[in-house]
Amino acid sequence: MESTMKEMRGGESVLDLSPRATVGGGVEDVYGEDCATEDQLVTPWTYSVASGYSLLRDPHHNKGLAFTETERDSHYLRGLLPPAVVTQQLQEKKMMDNIRKYQVPLQKYMAMMELQERNERLFYKLLIDNVEELLPVVYTPTVGEACQKYGSIFRRPQGLYISLKEKGKVLDVLKNWPERSIQVIVVTDGERILGLGDLGCQGMGIPVGKLSLYTALGGVRPSACLPVTIDVGTNNEELLKDEFYIGLRQRRATGQEYADLLHEFMSAVKQNYGEKVLIQFEDFANHNAFTLLAKYGTTHLVFNDDIQGTASVVLAGVVAALKLIGGTLADHKFLFLGAGEAGTGIAELIALEMSKQTKIPLEETRKKIWLVDSKGLIVNSRKDSLQHFKKPWAHDHEPVKDLLGAVKAIKPTALIGSSGVGRTFTKEIIETMTSLNEKPLIMALSNPTSQSECTAEEAYTWSQGRAIFASGSPFDPFEYKGKVFVPGQANNAYIFPGFGLGLVISGAIRVHDDMLLVASEALAKQVSEENYVKGLIYPPFTNIRKISANIAANVAAKAYELGVATRLPRPANLVKYAESCMYSPVYRSYR
Ligand SMILES: O=C([O-])CC(=O)C(=O)O
Ligand SMILES: [Mg+2]
């Protein structure tokens, strides 16, 4: 890795990977490991941590029993640890053994969070080496339950809380965060946590989980990641009554009061971290998500994961699925259940890609895509009463009141669920899709598992093994009539870590839709013949760092092409460069 960096920079070693001992035996950590930003390369800023007892309690530097004899001497650890000296591999084995013993997913989650707070490198080592097993623990679906119970399981705070109480002081709050060099912020206001609704301040589990994936899956170093929850209250009556609730005990502020706090936050971020910090909006309610993205898209580096990340991952799955269902993108007809952030975001990206491929205007390709919301099929006669983001999807058709009616009337080849409402793809709906198509494409995107529009078992059984199925939350492989079907996970976790890395390594200052298209294409290309045979339209997560490097390289290349990249000169081989930038969780030796 080091040699690649040297190569990339014309033989000049710009990174110092080994921390140096400071006066007093502490550890001086040379910032700028794992791809520093330009300014850090000029003046790498350093900080020292305490030695001895405090070192053992500093999760960024603690190695537990893996401290060597020499380190124990030079860092005042003698006697503070039992005599055994073990390897990181053995620590990993022990932790995995322990985690596997827990039967309850939330216990596994808590064990992982405790590890993150105790020994960060070991946490990431586990997550990277056991990604398929641990993703459902630190991320969807378990993170959903963790947010619901966040107050009860709360131990040490993670991330930054910005509530209405901090109005006028947001910049000071940012300055309280111990890290200066932030590259990615994931922010939520907790109003629409997965498909679970308003969880207020307890939505913090989501930015924390998303950012742990930025590091594990995308290689962004943990110290450059900042989880933020903006607390403007909650309308969740149960939480307001819950004595363990950790947030403001008031109903949600809206209108100007809401906009003002968000604006103060956005301005403070730019002032404190500059214009190259990526702000990822996560799990905002529809009515704010679209507005915030439009408002700040032209002044900040912003990305809405639910609108844009989900769109990119679903388009990749659809493109990959064409290998199994046949035809070109424009040959297909799409029907969505759910016309919110995810639904309309995906619909727009599919229409955009169709338009690019066929040169047919976007207004026309949109007509291949139909959306159903809680009031039925979105049609022209409803246009006046529709929210602005639904209007492009109002086509000419007589009113249809429900999904089953819409499937019969529209005869789609692909059915996509983004409604946040579980079990809405009924047996009759899937049977109808199967009677209309040799291989119906069924995507049940809503999270967590309880909100999935149908299960993998239902999709395969009701379609007699003919459905090409993927879901937002993970499902186990399912055997139907002697054949094992492996459902793909159509989750934005495939996209955002690599996408963000691409923005970071190119020093991009704006996000553009074309970047979403190239990310999507890069992901679709990673699906192999071996995957297709099992019915998979996504590659397994085991290869995610390679996938992320490819996505990052394509996004960065697009940033250079569009003139929004500030990191110059452009590295010649962007895939190699992206890989060389990735954080490694392997322990470092302290002199
Ligand atoms: O977090 C996930 O698993 C995917 C996502 O963004 C959502 O459901 O809001
Ligand atoms: Mg989300």
UniProtKB/TrEMBL annotation:
One of its GO terms (molecular function) is metal ion binding. This is Malic enzyme. Belongs to the malic enzymes family. Divalent metal cations. Prefers magnesium or manganese. CDD domains: NAD_bind_1_malic_enz (cd05312). Residues 116-297 form the Malic enzyme N-terminal domain. It comes from the Eukaryota. A divalent metal cation binds at E282, D283, D306.
